[in-house]
Design goal:
There is one protein chain. Helices cover 64% and strands 6% of the residues. The protein has 267 residues and is mainly alpha-helical. The strands form 3 sheets. Strands 4-3-7 form a 3-stranded antiparallel β-sheet, with no helix packed on it. A two-stranded antiparallel sheet has the order 1-2. A two-stranded antiparallel ribbon has the order 5-6. Helix 3 (44-60) runs parallel beside helix 6 and helix 7 packs across helix 8.
Length: 267
C-alpha cells in the first residue's frame, strides 16, 4: 500500500512537472520511479525532502533574466531535466533510502540530508548566482570568468547555496517530526544541511574547474559544456571525457553527504 501511495504521489508531482516542461518524458518516468522508492521504502521524511529539492529547483529554473537563454546554450543540460539529471541529482539519495530500509540507522538521515542539500544548494547557486551583476571568479585562481562558466563562484551564488542547504536542514527537522522519527536537534540538522550543501556545491565548482569534460566552440571560441554551440559541433577542450555534468553532480552529492554525516557523528 505504501508503494502504491508513493507511486500515485510521484506520478502527480512528476506529471505536473512534465506538463510545465520542467521534466522531459524520460525525466518524468525516472522521477515517478524515484518518488515511489523514496516513499515506499522510506516515509514522509525522505519523500518530503525530495519534494523540497524538486519543487524549489523547478521554480527557480523558471526565473527569467536577460542572459539566461545565452547561458543555457553553453550548458550540457538545460532547465528541462531528463532521466540522467534526475538520477544524478536524486540517485544517491535513493540508495540511502534503500540502505536505511535494509539496515535502519539514525545516521543515514544525516547522509541523506547532505546529499539533498548539495543538489539543492548547487541548483540555487546556479539559478540565483547568474543574477549577480558581478562576474564570477574561478574557485581555484580567483580569476574573473564569464557568467555561467564551470568552476566559477560568486558571493550571491554562495549565499544562495547556503540558503538552499539551510532550507533542506530546517525542512528535514519538520518532516522528521511529522514522520515520528528520532527527535534530533533543529540546529544540528540545519548545520548538517548548511555545511553539507556548501561542501557539495564547492566540490561541484572544483570539479568543474579541474576535471569536468569541457568543449570549445569552433566559431566563437567559448568554452562550453554543451556538445555543440553556435549551431556547430564543439571540440574537446579539457577534462576527463567521462566526467560529464551528471557525473560531477553525483560525486558532489556524495561529498556533501559525507560532510553532513560527519556533523551527525559529531553530535
Amino acid at each position: 500500500m505504501q508503494l502504491i501511495i508513493g507511486a500515485c504521489g510521484a506520478l502527480l508531482v512528476a506529471g505536473a512537472a512534465y506538463w510545465r516542461q520542467s521534466l522531459s518524458l524520460s525525466g518524468m518516468l525516472a522521477a515517478v520511479l524515484m518518488g515511489t522508492i523514496y516513499f515506499g521504502a522510506g516515509n514522509v521524511f525522505w519523500f518530503g525532502v525530495l519534494l523540497l529539492f524538486f519543487i524549489t529547483s523547478s521554480l527557480l529554473s523558471k526565473l527569467k533574466h536577460d542572459n539566461k537563454a545565452e547561458l543555457e546554450e553553453t550548458y550540457a543540460k538545460t532547465g528541462r531535466r531528463d532521466a540522467g539529471q534526475v538520477f544524478a541529482n536524486g540517485g544517491i539519495g535513493m540508495l540511502v533510502v534503500l540502505l536505511n530500509a535494509l539496515y535502519p540507522l539514525e545516521l543515514w538521515s544525516f547522509l541523506f540530508i547532505g546529499v539533498m542539500a548539495t543538489v539543492t544548494s548547487d541548483t540555487w547557486a546556479t539559478e540565483i548566482g547568474t543574477l549577480s551583476k558581478k562576474q564570477p571568479r574561478s574557485v581555484l585562481t580567483g580569476k574573473v570568468l564569464p557568467a555561467g562558466a564551470s568552476g566559477g563562484v560568486s558571493l550571491l551564488g554562495t549565499l544562495a547555496a547556503g540558503a538552499g542547504g539551510v532550507l533542506i536542514g530546517a525542512g528535514s527537522w519538520l518532516l522528521q517530526k511529522g514522520a515520528g522519527m528520532a527527535d534530533q536537534a533543529f540546529w544540528t540538522l540545519v548545520l548538517a544541511g548548511l555545511l553539507g550543501g556548501l561542501a557539495g556545491a564547492f566540490a561541484d565548482s572544483f570539479l568543474g574547474a579541474t576535471v569536468q569534460q569541457m568543449n570549445r566552440c569552433t566559431v566563437c571560441g567559448r568554452e562550453v559544456e554543451s556538445p555543440q554551440h553556435c549551431g556547430v559541433p564543439a571540440v574537446h577542450a579539457r577534462g576527463w571525457r567521462w566526467m560529464t555534468n551528471d557525473a560531477v553532480n553525483a560525486i558532489s552529492s556524495a561529498v556533501g553527504g559525507i560532510v553532513a554525516l560527519l556533523v551527525g557523528l559529531a553530535w
